[in-house]
Amino acid sequence: MIDEVAADETTHSPAEPTLARELGLVQIILFGVGGIVGAGIYAIIGEAAAYGGSLLWLSFLIAAVVALMTAATYAELVSRFPDAGGSFEYVKRAFGLRFALGASIVMFFTGVVAAGAIAISFSSYLSRLLDLPQTLTTVAVISVMGLVNVGGAAQASWFNTLATAVTLVGLGAVVIVAAPDIGSVDLFDAQDTGLLGLGVGSALIFFSFIGFEDLVKLAEETREPEKTLPRGLLISGVIVLVIYLLVAVAAVSALGPDELSESSGPLAQIMDAEAGSGWATAIVVVALFATAKTVLSNIMGTSRLLFDVARDAGLSWLERLTRINDTTKTPIIAVVSVTAVAIAFGAIGNLRVVAAISNIAIMIVFITVNLALLRIRATSDVEPPFKIPLSIGAFPITALVAIVGTVALLALNVVALLGIGQ
Fold first, then answer.
1. Across-strand partners of 313?
2. Which of 401, 379, 382, 380 is nearest to 390 (CA)?
3. How many alpha carbons lie under 13 Å from residue 96 in its C-beta half-sphere?
């Protein structure tokens, strides 16, 4: 029998370190949207267009469907176990602490590699405004976002809210400016794409949707997490899907798939061509906000994972990672540790390689988490506050679809990493 707790109870004893509950539904939705939007649109859309061509929008849709199936799994699991460990906690409940500790290594690298990848994109956009060494600016943005995290969840939320608002206004401007071009490109033309290209494009774009995985790690900093987080996960996922589809259609229509795939800053290029250089500069600034806040979310989520792993592992040499600052109520040593490793990956400098590595890691995590839900459903009689409604026997259909879809995208991601099919 799976060891579950009531939804309104903590999964840890009062003597253990705990985080301050400061986040409500609106903030969670903003963290969800903010953590996802930015990575795909500003960092990887051009790379994906090289494979998806005119069907780029369909690549986004396929990736979104697979990701949202896993988001439903996370929604049920976080309602069962509202814990800062996120995936680590769910795998531990299903398969035991020893297996979860091994899996946590992959989970940890998922977060830090993603932060490094997005920081590389930040530097690429900044280079359009300032002639600075990109390695230096990559290290700088990761370091600054680490400092914002040290300040606490409430302070990080303020920056995330501002950056998310700026990002959404910028994307809205791109869609409006490119709207007259919609219809100039056949969005159903699959002649130069093929199933392999469409699939590889979807695999690359999957990187765009991994932000929601960090959201569940805010469970111990969220009010009524067993209700708030499932709602926040699903609402933010749908919002992001709509935004991504609109921008994908607008981008392909304005530049065409070939030019889009060759551009180092496709959205800025759209604004330059359609509205002038001033608007292009503005969209670069928006991209800086978008990528910076995604780095923020990755550092925040991964530091909470590290905090929870150290808390549960019971190893004396990890105890420092559980220390919470009395003023900021954050696990500062965990935040600093995550920031330092993210800097190391950001220094690699190749966006496609780093994004593909991050994709492979997160896909392994998603497969494991979906398997964890299947095991928990098979061995537990406890009704969670949120339960996926469609099931075959005890097993939710969405989790089964997510496993099959993620395995397929994982294979295609390896194809992308090897540069096959472009």
1. none
2. 401
3. 2
For residue 37, which amino acid is it? Answer: V
Q: What pLDDT sits at residue 8?
A: 38
Give residue 74's pLDDT band: very low, low, confident or very high (50, 70, 90): very high
Question: Domains in the chain and their CATH numbers?
Answer: 25-418 (1.20.1740.10)
What are the phi and psi torsion angles at 47 (to 5°)? -60, -40
DSSP 188: T
Phi/psi at 392 (5° precision): -105, 105
* 383 within 8 A of 4, measured Cβ to Cβ: no
- pLDDT of residue 3 exceeding 70, the answer is no
Q: Name, in order, each residue with C-beta under 8 angstroms of 414's C-beta and a sequence gap of 6 or more.
A: 360
CB proximity list for 7: less than 8 A, separation 6 or greater: 79, 80, 82, 226, 227, 384, 385
Retrieve residue 35's tokens.
């953590």
Tokens of 329: 């109520």
In contact, 371 and 403? CB cutoff 8 Å: yes
pTM of the model: 0.82
What confidence score (pLDDT) does residue 419 get?
64
